[in-house]
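Input record, target 12 of the design panel.
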């Protein structure tokens, strides 16, 4: 590294820390380039990326198909509101509906996961005429005020309790009887993650998802599944709901849907869509041609490469070898596909820090005890082996008491 490089990185870090909002716990590194499952910082150091943009980069960073589609569309047409039909939007909608379970055939397009959740809430109220929602302990639905009302984490909720929707009941994830008791004639929707991501990478039992479908039908409420992180092959199926064979009334989508370009959607049944009045919801940028072109390329890549099969096979390989690590610090390895969490018997932050600084492996925290792995689904087996070896090394070498407090980030990521 030259003095010029060092000064440039320092300037970039200083600028971000000085001028941005201050809500993020920033790493002391500047990322400038990525390809597939590898990212490089401004000093030329390579990292194996098991963050994947918080589960966005399923098709790999700078996927050539997505890059080409974005370049071509940027030179053609980037902005067109949804009141004016567009060729790429129509093409994308056909592509998306073709991979969704039968019955989910209408789509509200937006720009992010939390926007998709906001739309889901409004469509649920319009469809049922009710205002009560059921969400889950340890669940995460977003951080805008509407979505935050469905998010369990007190750290996020408590500063805003006075303005949050209070007509939300939280029940224990996986407890059928508690859910049955909570859903009643006032319930608009049950909103559930098939795998709780930030809650510690906890897959729901398939029987619990099926019970939720039965209970909501009995009470005339909607079942809305949050597939913002689990969708688009992450769990070993195109959508996690397929593991349970359940079709909800609606599903929130985002993250990996456009290969890295911001996008979101609420997909729903015809009946739910029909009950929202014209003009009942809207968005300026949602459904823009640039995101649509990227989404078409990403979904077609997933289908051509059968990316759900890669996620299932690589995920099984990854988790089997994590379970074989002879460390008394590991309490449990759990996950689905390439959505993996390792729960430790002590705080995970020092190990996440060591993986980055000492091993060049980027990972996430999910609750204070869990190391979360969300690599691109295109990650190679060789890279998985490198991550496994690095993780085993830090489990052996790191003494949490010796890690300087300034280097340990207790951070929870936006989903």
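The sequence produced for target 12 reads:
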């Amino acid at each position: 590294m030259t003095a010029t490089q060092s000064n440039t990185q320092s300037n970039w870090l200083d600028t971000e820390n000085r001028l941005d909002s201050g809500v993020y716990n920033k790493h002391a590194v500047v990322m400038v380039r990525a390809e597939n499952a590898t990212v490089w910082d401004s000093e030329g150091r390579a990292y194996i990326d098991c963050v994947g943009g918080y589960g966005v980069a399923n098709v790999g960073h700078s996927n050539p198909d997505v890059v080409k589609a974005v370049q071509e569309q940027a030179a053609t047409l980037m902005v067109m509101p949804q009141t004016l039909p567009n060729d790429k939007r129509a093409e994308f909608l056909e592509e998306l509906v073709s991979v969704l379970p039968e019955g989910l055939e209408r789509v509200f397009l937006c720009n992010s996961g939390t926007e998709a959740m906001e739309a889901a809430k409004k469509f649920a109220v319009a469809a049922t005429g009710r205002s009560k929602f059921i969400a889950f302990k340890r669940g995460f639905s977003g951080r805008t005020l509407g979505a935050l009302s469905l998010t369990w984490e007190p750290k996020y909720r408590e500063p805003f309790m006075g303005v949050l929707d209070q007509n939300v009941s939280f029940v224990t994830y996986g407890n059928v009887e508690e859910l049955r008791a909570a859903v009643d004639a006032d319930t608009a929707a049950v909103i559930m993650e098939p795998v709780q991501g930030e809650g510690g990478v906890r897959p729901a039992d398939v029987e619990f998802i099926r019970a939720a479908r039965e209970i909501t039908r009995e009470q005339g409420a909607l079942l809305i599944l949050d597939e913002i992180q689990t969708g688009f092959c992450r769990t070993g199926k195109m959508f996690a709901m397929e593991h349970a064979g359940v079709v909800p009334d609606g599903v929130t989508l985002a993250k990996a849907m456009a290969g890295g370009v911001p996008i979101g959607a609420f997909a729903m049944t015809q009946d739910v869509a029909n009950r929202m009045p014209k003009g009942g919801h809207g968005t300026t940028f949602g459904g823009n041609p640039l995101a649509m072109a990227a989404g078409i390329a990403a979904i077609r890549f997933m289908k051509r490469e059968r990316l759900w099969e890669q996620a299932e096979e690589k995920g099984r390989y990854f988790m089997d070898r994590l379970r074989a690590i002879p460390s008394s610090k590991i309490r449990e390895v759990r996950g689905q596909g390439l959505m993996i969490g390792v729960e430790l018997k002590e705080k995970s932050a020092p190990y996440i820090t060591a993986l980055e600084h000492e091993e060049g492996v980027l990972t996430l925290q999910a609750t204070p005890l869990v190391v979360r792995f969300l690599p691109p689904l295109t990650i190679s087996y060789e890279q998985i082996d490198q991550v496994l070896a690095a993780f085993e090394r830090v489990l052996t070498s790191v003494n949490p008491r010796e890690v300087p407090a300034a280097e340990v980030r207790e951070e929870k990521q936006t989903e």
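The CA atoms of residues 50 and 374 lie 5 Å apart.
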